Amino acid sequence: MCHHDKIRSNNKDFQGEERKLDRRQFLTKTSLGLGAAALGSLLGAEKALGGIAGLGDENDLARVRASLPHFMPKAKRIVYLFQSGGPSQFETFDYKPKLVDMFGQDLPASVRGNQRLTAMSAQQSSFPLAASKYKFDQYGESRAWVSELMPHTAEVVDEMCFIKSMYTEQINHDPAITFFQTGHQLPGRPSIGSWMSYGLGSDNKNMPSFVVLVSKHGGGQPLYSRLWGNGFLPTEHQGVQFRSGKDPVLFLNNPEGYDGQDREQMLHYLRDLNELQHDAYGDPEINARIAQYEMAYRMQTSVPEVTDMSDEPDYIYDMYGEDAKEPGTYAANCLMARRLLERDVKFVQLYQRGWDHHGGLPWGIKNLSKKTDQANAALIKDLKQRGMLEDTLIVWGGEFGRTAYSQGKLTPDSYGRDHHPRCFTMWMAGAGVKAGYTHGETDDFSYNIVKDPVHVHDFHATLMHLMGIDHEKLTYKHQGRRYRLTDVHGHVVKDILS
User: Fold this and answer.
1) Are 305 and 36 in contact (CB under 8 A)?
2) Could you say which architecture CATH assigns to the domain 57-259+304-496?
3) For residue 161, is pLDDT > 70?
4) Residues 425, 382 contacting (CB under 8 angstroms)
């Protein structure tokens, strides 16, 4: 008996078990089927099936892919350097000299207004203003202001586009990070990279289109895998996390004692079984699992090649810094990101924790800047020297900014800053954005935006635009409505486009 006959025989056994369903299960299934049939007679079969969970999704994907790109993309790939914890704009890029003269004075009530405060500082009897302990200067032809903590970044400001007027709706870490990564403050929505993977697919069949790198030695707020999850999109679009160490991708290597020679044959049989299940039940998740198994098989050869950095010359390590030689550090992950981008990974998400400085900020931010500054600049330089910066977009930023006033005790040498969602700074570099440009402006206290505000949904709409996607058109039907990354609003920030 051939293997197809065996599979059919096994399938008949499955069908026999189905006949043993009790009366309640039978009536439930039958009523749903009759309801769908009745709905089909009223609305048309195609529309009815498209609205039932698990049906019509594959046709939706074909429709989406056929329409993309919506216009000529400026970027082929994105690397998003997410700085978890909320970097202080005062110690990095938003220079506020007035705070020096007003050191220790209370933040004017007219500036704070009725804005929400966190529970960590809401009970303070005063809100003493804290000027940055670090000096600022202007660099490059663009004369961009940069803190002395970022000397390497200062060398590449003419490649960068600063957005100093970002704002968000969330004031606490978890919802704020979730909002930035998925477009919604509650868990369950697809991440940015998953939307990109769903809409644009992959340019390299041997690598995932969406890869995640989480740097070690961060501390601070935890990061959850749902931040790069697929949400309600098919599971093949979730981010694949690359780790440092023996197994860069969990469960990818063969078990001990197994040489893997019959792996291809095993996957062939497994595919046949899954296709029979799909034919019987029409669940698109079955096809997603087939795709994942086959991708894992191809990655068994492609992943070791990309993660083996022994072929990198010494001058590259000199560019990224000594930390780049230690797997899992921020510098090593920036170098790994470049290697992934070279192999046409469409979206690389890099996370660095530790920017949550409620106290001891001068020392904390100095140490973290030292870990990240050189690698950020090196990634820009490296992509440029390879001719890749012109079609690669680099994004840097956290989930919110920090307050102009000190949280807790203020001294000339020590202070902390609380969360501040009303204005903060991010930067981009590369494909499709103006180089040597600063967008937006905050008041003298970096507490309110006075020019060109940019909401999180505007930021997402702009990223998608640069990849050739109209953010209002890339949607997915789930639980009776069509969802998108930008929820119900968002505008492309056209002023930053080159």
Assistant:
1) no
2) 3-Layer(aba) Sandwich (3.40)
3) yes
4) no
Q: In this predicted model, what pLDDT tens digit does every residue of 246-257 receive, in sequence order?
A: 778 876 777 777
The pTM score is 0.85
Nearest to 431 by CA among 497, 350, 338, 489: 497
> How far apart are alpha carbons 223 and 242 in whole angstroms?
15
Strands 210-214 and 476-478 come out as unpaired
- Judged by DSSP in three states, 78 sits in strand
d(Cα 400, Cα 381) in Å, to the nearest integer? 27
Q: How far is CA 487 from CA 94, 180, 183, 223, 226, in A?
A: 30, 12, 7, 23, 18
d(CA 177, CA 183): 9
Q: Which residues contact 462 (CB under 8 A, 6 or more apart)?
A: 492, 493, 496, 497
Please state, as a whole number, how many other Cβ atoms lie within 10 Å of the Cβ of residue 382: 20
DSSP state of 489: -
The answer to whether the bond into 187 is cis (omega within 30° of 0) is no
Partners of 405 in beta bridges: 129
Note the pLDDT tens digit of each residue in 459-496. 999 999 999 999 999 999 999 999 999 999 999 999 99
Residue reference for tokens 């969406």: 210
Rounded Cα distance between 184 and 204, Å, is 30
CB-CB contact of 423 with 166 (8 Å): yes
Tell me the pLDDT tens digit for each residue of 348-381. 999 999 999 999 999 999 999 999 999 999 999 9
- Angle (CA) 478 484 487, round 5°: 110
Tokens matching residue 279: 């034919």
> So where are the chain's domains?
3-50, 57-259+304-496
Q: What are the respective helix, strand and coil percentages of the chain, to the nearest 5?
A: 40, 15, 45
